[in-house]
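Appendix B. One record, verbatim.
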Amino acid sequence: MDVPESMRAELAAWNNGEGIDLESWVGCQGTFGLAVGYASIFWPAFVEFEGLILRAGFSADALHGFRLHEGIDRAGVESVMNHLHLDDIQFLGCPDASPDKLLHLGQVLEQIYAAKLRWQFPERPCRVSLHVPSEATALNAYEITFWQIANEGVPA
């Protein structure tokens, strides 16, 4: 796996400057509690509700509220309900958040979500979208979402 540029110096400093690979670094820095928490992001629970595919734990009130917005289609409702700001994965203001890490993470999540949705809902193709802001410093604007292709243009 490629290592984001902003992490290379940190990994190289380990072992008295001999460096460490990413997997070994996780073994030194991580916790099982964090691993369980991240598993819920890297292999999320998806559910079908009223013909929509949503991340489990959604708010039905929020869903019905979004459906009332004029001009929004079912794909738009799914997209809004399923979006995840990548910088929300860590605590707000995380000092090591950087554009290259968020891009890398987003690209991996994009592949994971697409694979899981194809596996779990093979008869309901989905589009997974990673939004990368044009302004690299807008760390809170990196976001991933998904919706069913069949819901594009269908009134909410």
